[in-house]
Amino acid sequence: MTEKLIFIDIDGTLVDYENNLPSSAVDAIHQAQDNGHLVIPVTGRSKAEMYENILAIGFDGYIGGNGNYVELNDQEIFHKHLTAEDTKAIVDWLHQRGLEYYLESNSGLYGSKKFAERGKETIQAYSAYKGKADAKQMDVKKVFPDMIFGSDPYRDDINKISFILDDYQDYLDAKKEFSNYKVGTWGGVGEKALFGDVALDNIDKSVGIGFLLQYLGKSKEDAFAFGDAKVDIPMIEYCGTGIAMGNAGPETKEAADYITADVDQDGMWKAFQHFGLI
Q1: What is the pLDDT of residue 53?
Q2: pTM for this model (two decimals)
Q3: What is the pLDDT of residues 39-66, one digit of tens each?
Q4: How far is CA 141 from CA 48, 95, 137, 148, in A?
Q5: CATH code of the domain containing 134
Q6: CA-wise closest residue to 224 among 1, 58, 47, 48
Q7: Which end of the chain is less packed: N or C, by CB atoms within 10 Å?
Q8: Co-location of 44 and 131 in the same domain
Q9: Secondary structure of 157-216 in the HEC alphabet?
Q10: 3: number of CA atoms within 13 Å, CB side?
């Protein structure tokens, strides 16, 4: 079979919303690689959030920041990020509003002064929406164990800035204030608006994939995309074959060419088998 590129979202696709990684998914990835295919995660996570249990799988590349950063064989080949001026403007606005935030960079996650304290309640709500039984025992340090506090927030290497929504109006005002950027919300299962985020406009998962395919001289017809959320729709529609997990939302399923089983019901393995990748 001709070499294919398999692009996989992480949260809700590779791992479930309790961060459980099915062994069948790991087996499918390794067998596909043995068959000569490339397997690459495509995620909103910056490199600092690619924890060891995921990195240990051994991917052929990495696309992070929802498409703003691309690696191939551990070498950076593409990176579009907020400038120092962008970051300062966003951070100053958040300070003015009294909103706590964290900066997402490949070098680390950088929390605002009171993010750990203010974030406890929101993190518990986020954990509950992700289905965690111990949600009431969660806090920022458990969810983001490597988060760094007290650093200068005016950085020039930031992929995205996430902030706690005290009210949905905070998101609406951010969207108005930063109309030249991509402003969104997130919050676990159902994509509930617990956090807002600000990133560069005109960047989505298909941008990173498109750059990598061009770099490798590959056609999008050679590409498979797996996802579960609305943020995955651009890559599902862009790639030659788009696959939605059984636990995906209705809009994501509608955009897909094929719907597999849930992430925790061997959905990835079953789809890899269905398309002859393994």
Answers
A1: 87
A2: 0.87
A3: 999 998 888 888 788 999 999 999 999 9
A4: 15, 22, 11, 10
A5: 3.30.1240.10
A6: 1
A7: N
A8: no
A9: CEEEEEEECCCHHHHHHHHHHCCCEEEEEECCHHHCCCEEEEEECCCCHHHHHHHHHHHH
A10: 12
Q: What are phi and psi of 184, to 5 degrees?
A: -135, -175
Tokens (6 digits) for 81: 């990020």
CA nearest neighbour of 29 among 278, 259, 255, 243: 278
Same domain membership, residue 110 and residue 167: yes
Calpha distance 48→82 (Å, rounded): 16
Joined tokens for residue 68 = 């703003």
Tokens of residue 20, six digits: 């459980």
What is the pLDDT at residue 135?
Answer: 67
Can you list the residues of the chain whose pLDDT is less than 70? 1, 128-135, 188-191
Domain count for the chain = 2
